[in-house]
Records
---
Amino acid sequence: MRSHRGWAECSKEAFNTGLDALARALKNWSDSRKGARKGRAVGFPRFKSRRRSTPTVRFTTGVMRIEADRRHVVLPRLGALRLHESARKLARRLEAGTARIMSATVRREGGRWFVSFTCEVERAVRAPARPGSMVGVDLGVKHLAVLSTGERVANPRHLVVAARRMRRLARAVSRCVTPDRRVRRVGSNRWARAQQELSRAHARVVGLRRDGLHQFTTRLTREHGTVVVEDLNVAGMLRNRRLARHVADASFAEVRRQLTYKSEWNGGRLVTAGRWYPSSKTCSGCGAVKTKLTLAERTYTCTACGLSLDRDLNAALNLAALAREVTDDRSGRESLNGRGADQKTRSRGQVAVKRLPGTARAGQAGTVPPQGGTTAQRSLLSTRR
Ligand SMILES: [Zn+2]
């Protein structure tokens, strides 16, 4: 089955997906060299092994639809595929004409197949429950976040909980007949099963964390008119030098990414404090700035006015105050935000039509919009046809 598949048997998209990704990688690299691209320098694309990458294919042309039962999707070449979850949310939008499927991506994660749709969506204008409310969010490791309202959002630490089971599964994998290409040994069936169980455990942790973050960011943006967060690098570099840095970093970035688009969806505003804004060292009562504050000091005590409160709450209060400053003095201070797009506010009563940067047309694989465009709905595919 491996390399004997005929050209005609495969969808041409299987090849195009890889070529499209390569084309984008090359463009990013050359734009980065020419200085036409923001952000970190992009390197030359590296070789990608099919053995170590996530199998994925993106369909951009042909029939892509959801069957009337909302339990099957139809994709080019593959035909109708049964879903584990109902696709009713997307189906409703498609029926109402407020969404149009641009592309469909099928990928395997943790031993399961997923399909996600990139859609052009017309969103109804929404307003947060409390448009005038401003909330500062201090992201951390001990707590996922401390809000300026005094609320502490717990960090569920799914990985720590699952670690024991994962160790056991990993041991089971290593005891099996593992594949070894040097001696042309293929893995045993037991190995494949054990491996699958382990990757399921990992995927479960990922899923739990993702669900928690989504619920948190949705709640924040639906409720408050203005959400203030720190620039990522402050949190990443100054705070968690030791524990679970990578995990935490990834979550911080994800929280900010979700807040960015969700605040726009919900008609709110996201303000990002500058990288060097001393949110932890400033007194939220009198504004005095300490020169030094060690990580061990969990309580902030002001030497100027004597105020004493929890360190993270103090930081969150400062962030909320920063938003007030931005609002009062709209002219020049907008640059507090590193990325201009984050602060965009929309006038009400206007229908927002989200558009992708490029519009895909049938037969033009080269003009496919970049991934992560507008909205994507993930559905779990059943492995049985
Ligand atoms: Zn003070």
Note: Residues 136 and 321 are 8 Å apart (CA to CA).
---
Amino acid sequence: MFDWKQDPHRRYNPLTREWVLVSPHRTQRPWQGQVEAGHDAARPQYDPQCYLCPGNPRAGGARNPDYTSTFVFDNDYASLRPDTPFDRFEQAGLLVAESEPGICRVVCFSPRHDLTIANMETQDLRKVVDAWVEQYSDLGSRPFINYVQIFENRGPMMGASNPHPHCQIWSGHSIPNEVAKEQASQLAWRGQRGDCLLCGYLDLEREARERIVDENECFTAVVPFWAIWPFETMVISRRHLASLDVLTAAERDALADILKRATARYDRLFQVSFPYSMGFHQRPTDGLSHEEWHMHLHFHPPLLRSATVRKFLVGYELLATPQRDITPEAAAEKLRGV
Ligand SMILES: [Zn+2]
Ligand SMILES: [Zn+2]
Ligand SMILES: [Zn+2]
């Protein structure tokens, strides 16, 4: 008889309408691949070389103020620029290009160089949430900005160039690929069934409890049934809401709380400052109400079985379908246990 805990199978992601291959039996295989450096060097509270620390000069010539809480500035090496003129190129429907105006910003979470979300105080994380709300509203209110992507790359394994606690915001004219996929799926679901895809999913998870990692009054952290990364999680708001700007004061506090809990669990799992890419998915700021959208965050951490062994998306996964070894249920159990 088929064993979902052992036998190879594939799972469907209703948000992207794509599949993931699950091969639980492969967790037994010996590892002879790349091993990453394991230990975090202790960091000072202030680093005179850091371009994000208070009072320090940045590469572009500007100097940071002596900020004492959160600090937001326009990215000195922005991938998008607001003054980019509109243009479009098309040849035979095969060569298509569009200009992409936008604004890129950096949000320093704290003046302290040595902190992370996991070891910041919840009341200070609340200020970070407030900064996200403010930036989403400010950037999203501009006519040429149709989507505001907030994301954090944590740790050198994820390509973070500076350990100072910070995130980036890239806001632009087009709807990014991943967001467009999720939007189309949520819209189609609502059109066909009349209710919300993620509200329905959250109900199933809260009943099963099998993949839930943590929760508070307003948010649930879950290893999705269709997770690709070994310890991937989603943080989903319990209330059906489309974007950060409609969070109540209590929900902002709860978001700060669940972020600290989720990242602290990650750190405890392999006793290391856990690397990840994290980001929000929410309503585009294109002037439409987007009732189909249910705001959530994704955490995509690369670590597989220890602080030093990471997962790569290569070969079959790059060319065919993403694949995982450990089941989402086993990953959730591990995260719940630390
Ligand atoms: Zn710093
Ligand atoms: Zn919903
Ligand atoms: Zn998403």
Note: Helices lie at 122-140, 177-193, 197-208, 249-270, 316-319, 328-336.
